[in-house]
Amino acid sequence: MQDNFVGDLLTVDLTTGRSERCALPAEITRRFLGGRGLNAWLLTRIVDAETDPLGPANPLIFSCGLLTGADAPSSSRLHAGARSPLTGLLGSSNVGGYAGAALRAAGVQSLVIVGRAAEPTSLRIGPDGAVELRPAGDLWGQETRPTATALGAGATRRILVIGPAGENQVRYACILTGTRHAAGRTGLGAVMGSKNLKAIVIEAGGRAPRAETPAQRAAIRAYAEGIRNAPRYATYARYSNSAYVNWANESGILATHNYRQTHFAGAAQIDGERLIQYVTRSRTCHKCPVHCKAEIEIHEGPYAGVRGERPDIEPIMGLGSKCGVDDPEAVLYLYNLTSDLGLDSISTAGVLAFAMELTERGILTRQDTDGVELTWGNVAGMATMMGRIARREGFGAVLAEGTRRAAEIIGRGAEAYALHSKGMELTGYDPRGGLGTALGYAVSTRGGDFTSVYPVPEYRLSAEEGRAWFGDARAVDRLDAGGKGVMVRRTMLVSAAIDALGLCKVPALSVVNDFTLEREAALTAAVAGWGGLSAGDLALAGERIVALEKLLNLRLGAGRADDDLPDRFTEERVPDAGPTQGMTVDIQALVRDFYAAMQWDEEGVPTPRKLAELGLEDLTGIQDL
């Protein structure tokens, strides 16, 4: 690897105000690359079962991927980690934009924040990595956009900020980079709020690694051309993935009315092809050729004046069909409200849909919800409750706990309608219509999640390709359980490796749809100067990261029973006519198949032999530490 290619480890103690900077061991970056891999390694060294997710000892970690901030295409990603206040397990989030590139330019590969400031504080990192803590009491209570503006967010100053939801430790609060990109899921905004840390300000002006040789520039061109020449490039460049809502509806996987149905009559109204009329300009992340982000503005009607960002498909499904909203302007309004408040849009949609079903079933009344009417499609009620959740007011304080804890508080049978895995609300695809997706929800190391598993081959590959890629044509038949363990194993390892490299999965996996890692290996070998790096090496690193995250979860109390799905998906058949009608999920059979593919034991524990193969033999028994 090139000299000085990898940045330093910067530790900041908010309690004492002290910081320390040191080099990362070369052995660690070779084993775990960066980003998600470094976070997994650091968390296993710091966190144990006694760590309070909202206590000062819980670290908040931001790690740049190995290639983040370099000249590599789509090398924007920054990985955040902690013990999750939502699940109690691995807290993990990945975000784009420009904050990661700015941190890397300051010479920092990983930022570890510990302790708790006595008063609201902002952390400033200079272009040379110098650290300064400043009072932020005047910003406390403000939403994310005015906070970012007050701190001078822009090309010369990159901001990571929380809103009222993070300040009030809503268990699914997120962290915003500027105002457009969210480090969502698992509640890391609550961890930041628990530390009295309102914002992290990264001053531009440092210098990240640059491509200086013909071989490096050729590798960069080849990777970028592969993205631009992919068949789905034009679609993603114009719509991102927002134009797949209709496809999900027709495929019988669109989460509707808290997953009671898979078909939504208003799907065409909220599809990205309809939302494009509100786009004012496209935006991109550091060095990305796709430009899939877009700014929107609503000019007339009840939401006139709303400006912000177009959501991707998951928030559209969540705030749209899952909650019964078919008004595209209302979806745009609600999504940007979650960003302003610093709420994770997917979990917010999950808790609101949960409350709506409880209302319909008579388990909740308006008296329970402080007069707020939480019924399907009631946008005003949703918006009011979002504000109350963010500020933990009244019934909002109950929903701020997430569906699992809220159901326990409410009682009266509410648990049956709290749809989550490991305590994290599921994303927008009904798992009965994609058995690889179902398996991913169950075994993802961060909870009910699609992005960290990315099982898109089951929706896109032919039987012939499935046989060639996974040794079983059934692996890419989304309604057939065969081969799903092997398929999900592969997509999880690839996803982990790409997160560790700091590349965006939208170009690599959604646009190009390449799960071989050949392209990423060639790019990394050239840009980082890591001669001889192969796709197999990256896959091995990805498997090492997944195994380490699994060991961490075991240490934090997860067990075999946590790799599961709610009864709605295992016992209730899809009622809607269409390709998934009558489907349920035999999740335990799928999980056993996955364990076998991973070479884990029957309890889902990586065996000593497997750990030795991964070079993790020193971590045997980590779950007992």
Question: Topology of this protein?
Answer:
Layout: E1 8-13, E2 19-23, H1 26-32, H2 35-46, E3 60-64, E4 78-83, E5 90-95, H3 99-105, E6 108-114, E7 121-125, E8 131-135, H4 144-150, E9 157-161, H5 164-167, E10 175-177, E11 181-183, H6 188-194, E12 197-203, H7 214-228, H8 233-239, H9 245-250, H10 267-270, H11 272-275, E13 279-283, E14 293-297, E15 307-309, H12 313-319, H13 328-341, H14 345-360, H15 379-390, H16 395-399, H17 402-410, E16 420-421, E17 424-425, H18 435-443, H19 457-460, H20 463-470, H21 484-501, H22 505-511, H23 518-527, H24 535-555, H25 567-571, H26 587-598, H27 608-613
Parallel strand pairs: 1-6, 7-12
Antiparallel strand pairs: 1-2, 3-4, 3-6, 4-5, 7-8, 9-10, 9-12, 10-11, 13-14, 14-15, 16-17
Give, in spatial order, the strands making up the sheet with the most strands. Answer: 2-1-6-3-4-5
Radius of gyration: 22 Å
Number of strands: 17
Q: Quickly name the level 1 CATH class of the largest domain.
A: Mainly Alpha
Low-confidence stretches: none
> How many individual helices?
27
Mean pLDDT over all positions: 96
Q: What is the count of distinct domains?
A: 3
Which CATH architecture of the largest domain is right?
Orthogonal Bundle
Work out the strand percent.
Answer: 5-15%
At CATH level 3, the topology of the largest domain is Aldehyde Ferredoxin Oxidoreductase Protein, subunit A, domain 3
Q: What is the molecular shape?
A: globular
Largest sheet: 6 strands, mixed
